[in-house]
């Protein structure tokens, strides 16, 4: 309880110092423990997040360098619709999913720009993003970003009119 | 022209338009749903005309889903005699965790395995949970995305059950 009160009073900066991997008012509102397990998406620092609008702009044809986009959630949902060009590399919440993720990036330079996403359910409940992010960092990848999907992929990507494709 | 634009960046128009069709299904007859449940029994939505159907898309890794399902099980017991029929369609990638969960919950309603095709048919299930309330005449009365306001949903269920008196 003492830590929650401190977060409300001091905001993002102190929260980040005191609470491993925590930042932002959204994360603060969900906090209930001294540290956040890597099982939680809340463990991903705000500095590593990328908003859907920003990623959508980056992925438009032409122009700038593109990241490797990996969906680390449900394969059923991936098959239904995913970001064009994304590869399936999940689920992050399971050992077999993390193996799949490791295989997906095997042999790539550690500076490779990788964006992971899920969108199975609200960010605060996602069981896949935290472990996937932690896995990539543990493998030595230095430029990993997490697509911040506050609600779900349908609402925060598809319903915004951003491009999708279907299939395995 | 629209087709050309749609294909400009890996966008099968059918996927994009299907994804945004979710709310457009309200008022329309629910798409066909014929599956075999975990117990090997045939589930045919069309055969449930005359009943009020609560069709819930969920998954074992979805925290908000597991808050709702026991409630839906309680509603099935309480309102079954009035004509409520709950169907739970799991969007898990594999059956084993669904079986384990269902064996523990003993929901009293059919649990079927959903898939991408079913999700697309229902206007895009790209985040969980998603619940459809279907009238006795087979038309969709409501689509609820995300964890529901369960008291409000229960009121809606009761209103639908009252529309044509007791279940047949």
Describe the structure in brief.
The complex is a heterodimer of chains A (168) and B (168). Chain A is built from 8 helices and 5 strands; from the N terminus they run αααβαβαβαβαβα.
What does this entry look like structurally?
The complex is a heterodimer of chains A (168) and B (168). Chain A has 168 residues and is α/β, with parallel strands linked by helices. Chain A has helices at residues 2-10, 12-18, 24-30, 52-59, 75-80, 95-104, 129-138, 153-156; strands spanning 49-50, 68-71, 87-88, 113-117, 143-147. Chain A folds into two domains: 2-36, no CATH class; 46-160, Rhodanese-like domain (Oxidized Rhodanese, domain 1, 3-Layer(aba) Sandwich), CATH 3.40.250. Helices cover 36% and strands 11% of the residues of chain A. In chain A, β4, α7 and β5 (143-147) form a beta-alpha-beta unit. In chain A, α1 runs antiparallel to α2 (12-18). By secondary structure, chain B is α/β, with parallel strands linked by helices. Chain B has a single domain (24-162), classed as Glutaredoxin, CATH 3.40.30. Chain B contains six helices and seven strands; from the N terminus they run ααβββαβαβαββα. In chain B, β3 (52-58), α3 (63-79) and β4 form a beta-alpha-beta unit. The longest helix of chain B has 17 residues, at 63-79. Chain B starts with a helix and ends in a 6-residue tail after the last helix. In chain B, 40% of the residues are buried. Classes of the chains: A alpha/beta (168), B alpha/beta (168). Chains A and B meet through α5 and α8 of A and α2, α3 and α5 of B.
Defining key terms:
heterodimer, A: 168 residues, alpha/beta, Oxidized Rhodanese, domain 1, 2 domains, five-stranded parallel sheet, 8 helices, 5 strands, 36% helix, globular, B: 168 residues, Glutaredoxin, five-stranded mixed sheet, two-stranded antiparallel ribbon, 6 helices, 7 strands, 20% strand, disordered N terminus
């Amino acid at each position: 309880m003492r830590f929650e009160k401190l977060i409300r009073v001091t905001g993002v900066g102190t929260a980040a110092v005191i609470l491993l991997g925590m930042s932002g008012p959204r994360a603060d509102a969900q906090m209930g423990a001294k540290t956040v397990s890597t099982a939680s998406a809340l463990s991903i620092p705000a500095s590593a997040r990328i908003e859907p609008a920003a990623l959508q702009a980056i992925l438009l044809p032409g122009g700038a360098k593109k990241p490797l986009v990996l969906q680390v959630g449900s394969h059923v949902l991936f098959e239904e619709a995913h970001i064009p060009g994304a590869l399936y590399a999940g689920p992050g919440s399971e050992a077999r999913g993390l193996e799949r993720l490791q295989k997906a990036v095997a042999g790539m330079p550690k500076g490779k720009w990788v964006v992971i996403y899920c969108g199975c359910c609200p960010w605060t409940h996602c069981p896949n993003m935290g472990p996937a992010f932690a896995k990539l960092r543990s493998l030595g990848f230095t430029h990993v970003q997490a697509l911040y999907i506050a609600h779900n992929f349908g609402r925060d990507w598809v319903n915004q009119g951003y491009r999708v494709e279907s299939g395995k | 022209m629209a087709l050309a634009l749609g294909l400009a960046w890996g966008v099968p128009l059918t996927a994009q338009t299907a994804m945004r069709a979710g709310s457009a299904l309200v008022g329309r007859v629910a798409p066909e749903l014929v599956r075999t449940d975990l117990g090997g029994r045939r589930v045919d939505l069309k055969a449930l005309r005359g009943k009020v159907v609560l069709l819930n898309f969920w998954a074992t890794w979805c925290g908000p889903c597991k808050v709702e399902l026991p409630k839906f099980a309680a509603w099935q017991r309480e309102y079954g005699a009035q004509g409520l029929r709950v169907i739970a369609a799991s969007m898990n990638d594999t059956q084993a965790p669904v079986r384990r969960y269902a064996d523990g919950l003993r929901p009293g309603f059919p649990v079927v395995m959903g898939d991408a095709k079913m999700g697309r048919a229902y206007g895009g299930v790209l985040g969980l949970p998603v619940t459809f309330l279907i009238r006795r005449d087979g038309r969709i009365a409501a689509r609820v995305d995300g964890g529901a306001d369960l008291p409000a949903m229960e009121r809606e269920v009761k209103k639908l059950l009252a529309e044509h008196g007791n279940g047949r």
